[in-house]
Design brief:
3 copies of one chain form a homotrimer.
Chain A lengths: L1 E5 L5 E4 L1 H11 L4 E6 L5 E7 L4 H13 L13 H10 L2 E7 L2 E2 L5 E7 L5 E10 L1
Chain lengths: ~130, ~130, ~130
């Protein structure tokens, strides 16, 4: 339920779908919800395209253009941009489980969103039956 | 639980509250959660005002101004802007069910957010008792 | 489950973590989910840093720079910017409950996000066992 993840770049989206799917399988839950939660304030989680890697590259770059690393901020740690981006992506994603599987669209992947890396990070997966 | 929806414009918010409410009623669940999930990567779901249609018009236009269709992107399909907007709105919305009804505010509607239409689309509604 | 909150500024993030934690405690649920829902269309909820108050100050200011109060909008009430910001933060947050406690990161707080205050507001907390 608690997964460790090592990011390798300052801003990076890492596909964690396989780990969430594994957790669903282990739970043996046939119908319910999977909640992915990121316990950090400069990283988030989102669902987006898993085919062309340029999609997440464009997402990072468009967010950076709008909320730049070197913008004018008060927060003393110099990573205010990352806090904003984390809230825009969100700290959790919810996916429906049907017949024992994540009910994702064909092109959907679940991404851990690093905005202030590289770092050792974590995310949680909670499976609810129902 | 699986609903088809036909969008008619490139960017469009469609009120799907009635369909979600119908699903809650059919389920006969008195207390729990309704999760609305969009299985696409260039469409999302959000909750916002259902009274003045200019609100969603302004939302589309403000997102477009910040993340324009014709911005500079790497993704070859030319719809990178739609991927970004989809993640900003999110792929799921969660609403509390109380006394057999969606516990929404007076002015709240649930919107399917098309960012790369017109297309045949789908959304899922999952009802959890508890 | 229904909490009243009085905001005191036009745009303001208020830490509501203690109230959500209290609700979890009262419920006596050891494992499950806490869903926080905001029934307004010009306010939202997000999870972000609870240590340096400049973080939420920077978030409000960065959102305001991108989606300004006095931008060009059609919505007649003059608060279109607040509707956009509310959807960007989202109307709900979901937190995992483990061993009777909110499974939040060390620096995470749950924030009620006012974008069109000051006003009398509400938020709901729903606890699900599972």
């Amino acid at each position: 339920m608690r997964y460790k993840i090592q990011t390798t770049k300052p801003q990076q989206f890492i596909d964690i779908t396989a780990k969430v799917a594994e957790e669903v399988k282990k739970s043996n839950v046939q119908d319910g919800l999977a909640v992915i939660f990121v316990p950090h304030t400069t990283a988030g989680v989102t669902i987006n395209e898993n085919a062309d890697p340029n999609v997440v590259r464009d997402m990072i770059s468009a967010l950076e253009k709008t909320f730049p690393v070197d913008g004018e901020y008060f927060h003393f740690e110099g990573n205010a941009h990352a806090h904003i981006k984390a809230s825009l992506m969100g700290s959790s994603s919810t996916v429906i489980i049907q017949e024992g599987k994540l009910l994702l669209g064909t092109w959907q992947g679940i991404y851990f969103c690093e905005f202030d890396g590289p770092r050792n990070r974590e995310f949680y997966v909670k499976i609810l039956r129902g």
